Amino acid sequence: MKTDKLIDALVADHAPRGKPLRWALAAALLAGGLVSFAFFLATLGVRADIEPALGTWRFDLKVGLVLLALGLAFSLCIVLSRPVAPAQPGRLLLPLAALAVLAVAIELSVLPSVSWSNRLVGSNAMVCLVAIPALAIVPLAAVLAILRAGAPASPALAGGAAGLLAAAAAAALYAFHCFDDSPLFVVTWYALAALPVIALGAVVGHRLLRW
């Protein structure tokens, strides 16, 4: 059997029955996200000043960043679920990096330098570091369960992408509780909070997603 036919056969054998992997992954993320949403409402809740916050460019940019991360991480999971992955899959995240750099540059240009450190540290950095990983656990488990039906060339990379997707979903929820809207805070602390979820996904994926 030729290599390409063998790969096609393996993918077909691992594909979720009755639905493409993309839709199964979306359904799993939604299911995990609903559990996290219930946990979010029970423990954190939406910030009290959400209505005026919705009219500010910093809050809108924060939500835009996490939603872009969510969409790109979803695409990355799909790409890395295949037996032949692109040479540099990380390039899919370049739009997110570009928007993050632009957001930070705008913030630095409109704020006096004496206020940079205060905006960077914010008021609830420790809450961010705990809340995002906690909210990401169930979505991560759901996404990894679906990725087992794929045939990833690198189980660890696919698991890491699952971690990024789960962390982005958690950040999308946490953004509506967080009072720190500065891009300096968001780019720094949201990214730091995502790292343990990505690492956990990579470790579990290395074991769970082998084929």
UniProtKB/TrEMBL annotation:
Pfam families, per database record: NrsF
Keyword Magnesium set for record: no
Top-level lineage group: Bacteria
Keywords of this entry: Membrane, Transmembrane, Transmembrane helix
Signal sequence region: none
Segments passing through the bilayer: 21-41, 61-80, 92-111, 123-147, 156-176, 188-209
InterPro entries to which the protein is assigned, alphabetical: NrsF (IPR009495)
The protein's name: DUF1109 family protein
Organism: Reyranella soli
Lineage of origin: Bacteria, Pseudomonadati, Pseudomonadota, Alphaproteobacteria, Hyphomicrobiales
